[in-house]
Amino acid sequence: MALLSSMLFISLFISFTEARELLIGGNSNAWKIPSSESESLNKWAEASRFQIGDSLVWNYDPSKDSVVQVSKKDYDSCSTSSPIAVYKDGNTKVKLDRSGPFYFISGTEGQCEKGQKLVTVVLSGRHQFFHVSPAPSPVEFEGPAVAPTSGGTSLRGGFMVIFGVLAGLLLF
Q1: What is the per-residue pLDDT for 113?
Q2: φ and ψ at residue 145, rounded to 5 degrees
Q3: How confident is the model over 129-139, as pLDDT tens digits?
Q4: DSSP letter string over 58-118?
Q5: Higher pLDDT, 54 or 5
Q6: Nearest residue to 62 via CA among 107, 105, 22, 110
Q7: Using CA atoms, how far apart are residues 21 and 26, in angstroms rounded to an integer?
């Protein structure tokens, strides 16, 4: 019984810490100028929780657009003059390898100014599951940032139920 309990716990832990590939905006044609503020990719990012090891995936026509990773300063000014990285392949995948903010803008002139840009905030390892305070807007972040998980409370409750069931099984 102890072996079964341990295996269950390990499999649950692995499934909750597994890296994911996240399609930008949740669909294949989201990398475009938003038609309204509610369609901004930052609204999608604010509602999402990114973890170290996750990858962001963009699909776009490489003859018409690109993805440029930039600093906060260049994000705010929509400048592509000092990029961190430039992606032009039409099926871009960027691994989120650290906690804090990541800034992306369109490489097509004028599109960033019209709202085609994205900032994501990656959770630090110590706050991935149990931090439950409200998420600040990632646009307001300057330095290393920690965004809370949206499901931290329910996940903690889920772990408590699992531990309660396992403890009950071990006692009987």
Answers
A1: 97
A2: -130, 155
A3: 444 444 444 44
A4: EE--TTT--EEEE-HHHHHHT--SS-SEEE-SSEEEEE--SSEEEEEEESSTTTTTTT-EE
A5: 54
A6: 107
A7: 11
CB 57 within 8 A of CB 91: yes
**Residue 151 DSSP class:** T
Residue 150 CA from chain centroid, whole number: 12
Dihedrals φ, ψ of 47, to 5°?
Answer: -85, -10
Angle at 170 between CA 160 and CA 14, to 5 degrees: 50
Q: What are phi and psi of 57, to 5 degrees?
A: -125, 125
Structure tokens belonging to residue 85: 């990285």
Work out whether the CA dihedral 35, 24, 32, 30 comes out positive or negative.
negative
Average pLDDT, the chain: 77
- The Cα 40–Cα 46 span in angstroms is 10
Task: Enter the pTM of the model.
Answer: 0.66
Give pLDDT tens digits for 61-113: 999 999 999 999 999 999 999 999 999 999 999 999 999 999 999 999 999 99
At residue 68's C-alpha, the angle toward residues 63 and 69, to 5°, is: 160
Distance of CA 105 to the CA centre of its chain: 16
Cα three-residue angle 109-115-116, rounded to 5 degrees: 60
